[in-house]
Amino acid sequence: MTTYPFHVTAFISVFLLSMFSTASAEPSSRPNVLFISVDDLNDWIGCLGGHPQTKTPNIDRLAASGVLFTNAHCAAPACNPSRTAIMTGISPHKSGLYDNRQKMREVLPEAELMPKYFSRNGYWSAGSGKILHYFIDAHSWDEYYPPKEKEDPFPRTLYPENRPVNLPRGGPWQYVETDWAALDATDEEFGGDWLVSKWIGEQLSEQHDQPFFLACGIYRPHEPWFVPKKYFDLFPIEGIQLPLGYKEDDLDDLPPAGKKRGPNRYFAHIREHAQWKQGIQGYLASIAFADAMVGRVIEALENGPNRDNTIVVLWSDHGWHLGEKQHWQKFTAWRVCTRVPLIVRVPQGVPGLSKGTKAGATCSKPVNLVSLFPTLTELAGLPTKSDNDGPSMVPLLKDPETEWPHSSVTYLGEPGSYGLSAERWRLIHYANGDEELYDNQTDRHEWTNLAAQPEHADRLASLRELGPKKFAPLVQASDESLIQLKWHPTDNAAAPASQPDGDSFDVVFFNSRKDPVQLSWMDREGKPKPYGPIAAGKRKRQRTRPGAVWLITDAAGQPLGHFVVGDRTARAMIPMP
Q1: pLDDT of res. 20
Q2: Which residue has the higher pLDDT, 44 or 172?
Q3: 133 annotated active-site
Q4: 74, 79, 337, 363: which one is catalytic?
């Protein structure tokens, strides 16, 4: 029998004991993760004070039980780049994914998503509802509702048969879902987020053999703002207050790039039809409905076997304008659009934060949602994912007042444009060099742009130094991934006149025929204007606008059919005869 000196024997004993202890304790000590997303939610929740009439008792109670980050910002003010950054841990300026029209798996074909990373490290990863941008990414999940193989994250949802209901469509530029109405239905009849919360609640009510990563995607208050009538009844239309951040002349001190980004036709169209307060009512009602669904999920957790060992995170992918800066929707770098609710509650005994979080704590340090990935892996005691870009927020969960040398950057849709948030100050930098500077301590609504004032030149320069210096190029979506325009054959209808209205973008025409065709634009008087041939089996990328009509003729000039351009980049397939 081999013998070893005492100090070697002692070392081996300690090493084996350590290995045994780690192996035996690891599965049982790892916490569960409940990951709740609320879509398009700005700071209109009670604990953030964004609107005096909002009703969010369940989200507020969750905030009171954990840490509320009052200076949290999205990685991008649009669903796709924001959610991609969260779920991959990769910032838009590193990935090149800045825009809703891009496809995540075309830009990041090998990226490992958060649920897959947790699953590969011993977790059961499941989800329901919208977590990514209108797809599930089936191979990243162990289970999903609706079934992941369908790649459709939405369960059945009740919508009015005849639409629009309250806001007429202003033209092809308008997103078809921009509308609102109270529905004569119960929550269960409405379905949608009620079904998501039901499925998530069922998982939380069970004891699992493995720790779980469970993602809950609440779709409201994303448009359309159709929810059961009882939520509209909470906000009588005659008492609706306008947004706190609205100021009629708020664009006067903006540089050209800011003035261009601010006013959009949605807000003008809504006011023209006297629907501003009705829109606010619809948003408030949708928030109240979303809060009720969050309440169902939290109640299931509190009443189930996983209450004491589950980390809870609640976040929104970006904010939303309801008239501030003369803007409606998202896509801007102003605080109303970049600042989001973020709540983290950590129980005692987790590997990365043994004491857990202090109930009712708030943190004003600037943080970004791209930090969620490294934060959760550290809390769970998992290995660090090497390509995570954001700093872990665990130091702030330990002590919300600790020194925090980081700023938070939100990337706009074109490389080089971003909003940078420090603890007090905010810089907006546009790709053309235009800038805005705001003091959020004295100007929470960003009404006064200080960038041109000489006394703030040094501060502007110091904030600029904190910003990114390099930007990955925007990776264009492949032609095959674009939505397809409807083909209108000539035997059904003649090509109408174009009614172009809105910003320009590309449409890609594919000639599937064995013979060349001629592409022509129908002008406003209904006369065709030739734009050149498209050879057999070839494609042509053409700049156009919403409402444009493109006529396809054969080589002899005989009409074959036409396409009517919608509100976004698309492909137009010219079919074989």
Answers
A1: 35
A2: 44
A3: yes
A4: 79
